[in-house]
Amino acid sequence: MKPIVILLISVSLTSIGQLILKKGLLIVGPIERVGLRFFQMLVNPLVMLGIAFAILGWAAYVMALSKAELSYAYPIWSLTYVIVPLLSLFVFRESISLLKMGGLGFICLGVLLVAVSVR
Question: Fewer CB near the last or first residue (10 Å), C or N of the chain?
């Protein structure tokens, strides 16, 4: 499988994992320090599922990294910084300002430049 496909799988798994993790943490509530609530968080099924997705995303990233240059793989992986806020807009009704949208656009432009630079 091509590194770009593996990287996009990694980006997808990692992004989904972040959303699931956040959903689980909304159920648990704020965590101020390592204590009872922290351990409740660790056994919450959604938190565990989110962590599992993050681990799978990391494993896919490692597989891609074994085939691609770091200077290519890491910028592509930064698409998670775009996908997570956009999905959070719909899933959690979070707001995205025009300034933040501009920043996400610059990330996309940077990823595009990195992706087309590979021969």
Answer: C
